[in-house]
Design brief:
By secondary structure, the chain is an all-alpha fold. The chain is 70% helix and 3% strand. It is built from 39 helices and 4 strands. A two-stranded antiparallel sheet has the order 1-2. A two-stranded antiparallel ribbon has the order 3-4. The longest helix has 32 residues. It is elongated. The N and C termini lie far apart (68 Å).
């Protein structure tokens, strides 16, 4: 049973890869591939259902980074099971709906990839059994939702809505991370079971208020609570399938899910009660009131979603057992009727070309079936009897009149609940009346009609669920509700009844008042004001943009003060910060280093040192002669490599030598981008200042290096030497450290290296020479060096493969081998030019980087299938005919990824540096220069 949870989580990501692997397949094929993830996930969830309904908690745990308390722990209890069902069930319906909603101009494959990534992130969040792991998936939902909201990137409102959602929820995510770290500090663990059992310990801690407010900041931003609610209406610029998925059952429910998840740990204090219930009640009223005056169908649904999220937050804030049950119940009910309403609004938009209720009306005659479905879902949203929304609204009224706290608080909550009932009926009535009744539609560019048959199926299924739950709740939703609520409340689970009729009581009277008051309010507003003439403004949006402008202006001033284009100033700041940070511990705790007596340096060591010093000093003397200075700097690097050889460090020597070769070529190519003349000489006092700073920094690094080299042998180095062969199956401890002991660091480094290469490619791919820098005549041909470079390539390829294969047991490895392969190609770029080399070899360096990272991830993750941490090595002895026994370590897969990333990244950067194209303009190609028309910044002709 245990492997089922990793498979459940992996399905959306695997199907996203499958959709991406067939970009030329039909839209139907992409939809079927995407649908396999939620359908397969539902099958796994159904298999696990008996265990969950029996009260068991299904767990899977794989050690990941146990040193910081981060294990890859998946945990399926009743609450996670319910949310996983919502994510997968509504996800499957959205996939089907999107197949018919998206136009032929939309990139359906890209849409399904984004949708599956978001689905996987949501599943990871609800299944996480570790708070740090939950944070990883939490941030993944923010990023993937940004991609989905901004799917129509050609539209300004979509880009703005996506950015607003990312900034607000991303900022809340940072606050949540700080809160999670505080909780981990209080409890001493990030394991969810330990945290949930430590509620009294958390509430008794002096850090509890800080942890609570930080966690609530993350929850409130994600679930659009006041005053962070304004991002949600602007996210309606997303395609309607996105709104139906993210803004009914998933993304906006992530916050209330976490509120329910951490309820046993954080609830139970007056601070929690008043803060959560107060914000929930305020959001409930603000969202409901604003929904009445919206003209856009999705805008009305967005504000109603804000209101219902406030209702759920209010219920969890009240913290009584029945309030928690009601909160969980309304999460289910809201997901069903709101997803169906969003889909109905999308159908209306799809068939009429507008969502503006001022242009709609009378659609019940033109789209009778869709109208009936939308009306039923609207009545469920309004809380009309025999529909699911009525049952959870009755629970809200019952809990409001019996809320804890002072009498004033109880009265305020009861009034807020009653007003929300009135407003809910009013905006539901407006949705129905202005869309399906009255005169109209008018000013449309098409004749509305019913959508394709299968486009209505998701709405039909959801509406049937609304009716079934409303009519027979004990037979439909009772087991789900009990399992989810019991996982939160535990032994405090109350006795309750899901009967439709509870007799005449105060909650029923409040429901009746809400219905009558809502009808009266809507028609009263129609008589008093012109609802269609109301102008909607968004104060939150205005404040958001004002704050962004202020932040951008402050950042611009700071950037202009620090990064004003002067490389010297940037290096000065970098070195000064490094000196301060390095010296701070020694200033705080003065201590003299315990250096051993120095050993005598042989004559060869003195020779290397003197040549290195001579090159360094000569570089300072001839810095104006750029080519000579670059060669002298290369001489310094060469002496460093020989020093490593002298100190018996062949791996480091090989790496240093190859990096020096590549860097030398990079600096030579970079001269194309330097101005022909150097700037004016710096004042003498600045030179003296820089010399003092350089001496201090160099002395500090020298002292640090000497301290490291004179440490006693019984340190971590000795431990690594002892463990390399028996645990990682490698005799080359340097390579073992890179691909095993510190493999996660190496993965981060190659990721950064790949990103840097892509940034260089993006910056330089459109670079053009200034016209006056174009050398006249054809390129100089160098046939002998060109022939030698071509002959060298097969040889260096052989050497590269040899160094790669031996790297685990002898000097070599993926990093060195990748650079060895890059060197002959770089020489050919320099001698023959980009066009000649790429016409013969045709390497796709960007794809090479991507493949390398993918191989590194897959090979590192394979160990987790065997219950061991990420990148743990395995060993296999192969017996091959004629060759004999060949020992293989699983780390070779990760090293292949390193090999490809290093080769692809180095070649991408250097090939872009080598590809400085002439200006595209005709006058520039002819060599005609008009200084009045040429850009002083780029050299391009205007």
């Amino acid at each position: 049973m245990l492997p089922s949870l990793p498979l459940l989580l992996a399905l959306p990501f695997l199907m996203a890869v499958a959709v991406a692997a067939f970009p030329r397949s039909s839209r139907s094929t992409a939809a079927w591939l995407a649908a396999l993830a939620p359908l397969g996930g539902l099958a796994i969830l159904a298999w696990l259902t008996p265990s969950v309904l029996d009260g068991q908690v299904v767990r899977t745990m794989v050690p990941w980074l146990p040193q910081i308390g981060l294990d890859f722990t998946l945990r399926l209890d009743g609450l996670a099971w319910m949310f996983a069902g919502l994510v997968l069930g509504i996800g499957a319906l959205v996939v089907l709906y999107a197949r018919y909603y998206l136009s032929s101009q939309d990139n359906a494959h890209r849409f399904y990839i984004y949708l599956l990534l978001f689905m996987g992130a949501m599943l990871g969040m609800v299944l996480s059994g570790n708070l740090l792991l939950l944070m990883v998936f939490w941030e993944m939902t923010s990023i993937s939702s940004f991609l989905l909201i901004g799917f129509w990137s050609h539209r300004q409102d979509a880009r703005e809505g996506a950015r607003m959602a990312l900034v607000i929820t991303g900022g809340g995510g940072l606050a949540l991370l700080a809160g999670v770290l505080l909780i981990g500090r209080i409890v001493g663990s990030f394991d969810l079971d330990v945290v949930l059992a430590a509620g009294e310990q958390i509430r008794a801690s002096a850090l509890y208020p800080y942890a609570l407010f930080l966690v609530l900041a993350g929850i409130f931003t994600k679930s659009a609570q006041f005053p962070f609610h304004f991002w949600l209406p602007h996210a309606m610029a997303a395609p309607t399938p996105v709104s139906a998925y993210l803004h009914s059952a998933t993304m906006v429910k992530a916050g209330v899910f976490l509120l329910a998840r951490l309820h046993p740990a954080l609830a139970g204090s007056d601070l929690f009660f008043y803060t959560v219930s107060g914000i929930g009640a305020l959001t409930l009223l603000v969202g409901a009131w604003n929904a009445i005056f919206q003209h856009d169908l999705k805008g009305l649904l967005a504000y109603s979603t804000i209101s219902h999220l406030g209702l759920i937050t209010l219920l969890f804030g009240l913290s009584t057992p029945m309030a928690v049950v009601a909160g969980v119940f309304h999460i289910l009910n809201h997901a069903t009727f709101k997803a169906s309403l969003f889909m109905a609004a999308g159908i209306i938009d799809h068939e009429t070309g507008t969502r503006d209720m001022r242009k709609l009306g009378g659609l019940r005659r033109l789209m009778p079936f869709t109208s009936a479905l939308a009306i039923i879902a609207s009545l469920a949203m309004a809380g009309i009897p025999l529909l699911n929304g009525f049952l959870s609204k009755e629970m809200l009224f019952a809990e409001a009149i019996s809320a804890g706290g002072t009498q004033a608080m109880r009265t305020a909550v009861s009034i807020a609940a009653l007003l929300a009932g009135v407003f809910g009926v009013a905006y539901s009535l407006r949705f129905v009346h202005d869309t399906f009744f009255g005169p109209g539609p008018h000013d449309l560019d098409r004749v509305p009609h019913e959508p394709p048959r299968w486009m209505k199926v998701p709405v039909e299924i959801l509406v049937v669920i609304c009716v079934a739950v409303g009519v027979a709740p004990a037979l439909t939703v009772a087991p789900v509700l009990h399992a989810a609520a019991a996982s939160i409340l535990g032994n405090a689970m109350p006795e309750y009844s899901l009967a439709v009729w509870h007799g005449f009581n105060l909650p029923l009277a409040m429901s009746a008042i809400g219905v009558v008051g809502g009808v009266a309010l809507y028609f009263g507003l129609r008589r008093l004001i012109n609802l269609h003439g109301v102008t909607n403004t968004s104060p939150g949006r205005n404040v958001f943009h004002r704050q962004l402008d202020l932040l951008s202006a402050a950042a611009q001033r700071l950037t202009n003060g620090i990064a004003n284009g002067s490389l010297q100033r940037m290096l000065l700041g970098l070195v000064l910060v490094a000196i301060v940070v390095a010296a701070a511990p020694f200033v705080a705790n003065p201590a003299s280093p315990n250096w051993t007596a120095p050993q005598p340096i042989p004559l060869l060591g003195w020779a290397l040192w003197l040549v290195m010093m001579a090159c360094a000093v000569a570089t300072l003397r001839v810095y104006k002669q750029r080519l000579l200075a670059v060669l002298l700097v290369g001489g310094v690097g060469l002496m460093v490599a020989l020093t490593f050889v002298f100190l018996s460090a062949p791996d480091l020597a090989l790496t240093q030598l190859l990096v020096e070769m590549v860097t030398l070529v990079l600096m030579l190519l970079g001269m194309n981008y330097l101005p022909a003349q150097s700037g004016p000489e710096r004042p003498r006092w600045r030179k003296r200042r820089d010399a003092v700073i350089a001496i201090i920094a160099g002395a500090g690094l020298g002292a640090l290096a000497y301290t490291a080299m004179t440490l006693p042998p019984n340190t971590m180095a000795g431990e690594l030497l002892a463990r390399a062969l028996p645990e990682a199956y490698g005799q080359n401890v340097v390579n073992v450290i890179l691909v095993d002991f510190r493999g996660f660091d190496t993965f981060g480094e190659i990721t950064v290296f790949g990103i840097a290469a892509l940034v260089v490619h993006a910056l330089l791919r459109r670079t053009r020479m200034a016209p006056e820098q174009i050398m006249p005549g054809p390129p100089i041909k160098l046939p002998v060096p060109a022939d030698l470079a071509q002959i060298m390539f097969p040889l260096t390829l052989t050497v590269s493969i040899f160094l790669f294969l031996r790297g685990h047991n002898a000097p070599g490895g993926g990093f060195i081998a990748g650079l060895v392969l890059a060197v002959p190609l770089l020489i050919q770029y320099v001698i023959q030019g980009t066009a000649s080399v790429e016409s013969r070899f045709g390497f796709d360096y960007i794809r090479c980087i991507g493949m390398g990272l993918l191989i590194a991830i897959l090979s590192g993750s394979a160990s987790m299938l065997f219950g061991v941490p990420f990148l743990t090595s395995g060993h296999l002895d192969l017996h091959l005919p004629l060759i004999g026994e060949v020992p293989l370590a699983s780390a070779i897969g990760f090293d292949i990824g390193v090999y490809l990333v290093v080769f692809g990244g180095a070649m991408l950067m250097l090939s872009m540096m080598a590809t400085v194209k002439p200006s595209r303009t005709r006058t520039a190609r002819k060599g005609e220069i008009d200084l009045q028309r040429r850009s002083a910044r780029t050299g391009e002709m205007h």
